Amino acid sequence: MTPELIRGARAMLKLKQADLAKAANLSTAALNSIERGRAVPRAATAASIQRALEEAGVEFILENGAAAGVRLRNADPTRSREPPTRGFKGALVDIQTLVRVALGISDPVVMRRDLELILKITEEALKAEVGQ
């Protein structure tokens, strides 16, 4: 499991690092180090993070036995989620996360949903920035 997958799953679930860390029985500092790629988790730690994320509502897409993507479980793939309203900088972070996740998705329906979400986030952020 890569740092990008963990961050992407957490973003999809709108979980804070502290919430995921608690669910995975880790310190927030440890999870932060893993998400930044500064620490490589042991197998048991990675499994704990994966379990917590799956219990929260995502599923990991496997390719060759390894996680290659992540998506919301039981989500209607034709319906986009509402974009978060965290200002322009927050929108850019959300877009960056979604693009990284989308690059690992092979399902065109899921990819379309995520691209539509990126468009919504961009539109909301631009409206907020311009003050419309």
In words, what does this structure look like?
The protein has 132 residues and is mainly alpha-helical. The chain has two domains: 1-73, 434 Repressor (Amino-terminal Domain) (Orthogonal Bundle), CATH 1.10.260; 76-132. Helix content is 61%, strand content 10%. The chain contains six helices and two strands, in the order H-H-H-H-E-E-H-H. It has helices at residues 3-13, 17-23, 28-35, 43-56, 87-103, 108-130; strands at 58-63, 66-72. A two-stranded antiparallel ribbon has the order 1-2. Strand 1 (58-63) and strand 2 (66-72) form a beta hairpin. Helix 1 packs parallel to helix 4, helix 2 (17-23) crosses helix 3 and helix 5 (87-103) runs antiparallel to helix 6. The longest helix is centred in the C-terminal third of the chain and has 23 residues, at 108-130. The protein is globular and about 45 Å long. 24% of the residues are buried. Residues 76-85 have low confidence and may be disordered.
CATH 4th-level superfamily of the largest domain: lambda repressor-like DNA-binding domains
> Strand order of the main beta sheet, please?
1-2
SSE run: HHHHEEHH
CATH C-level class of the largest domain is: Mainly Alpha
Number of strands: 2
Query: Could you tell me the radius of gyration in angstroms?
Result: 15 Å
CATH architecture of the largest domain: Orthogonal Bundle
Distance between the ends: 41 Å
Shape: globular
- Report the β-strand fraction as a percent range: 5-15%
Low-confidence parts lasting 5 or more residues at pLDDT below 50?
A: 76-85
Sheet with the most strands, sense and barrel status: 2 strands, antiparallel
Average pLDDT across residues? Answer: 78
Total count of domains: 2
Overall SS class: mainly alpha
Portion of residues within helices: 55-70%
And the CATH topology of the largest domain? 434 Repressor (Amino-terminal Domain)
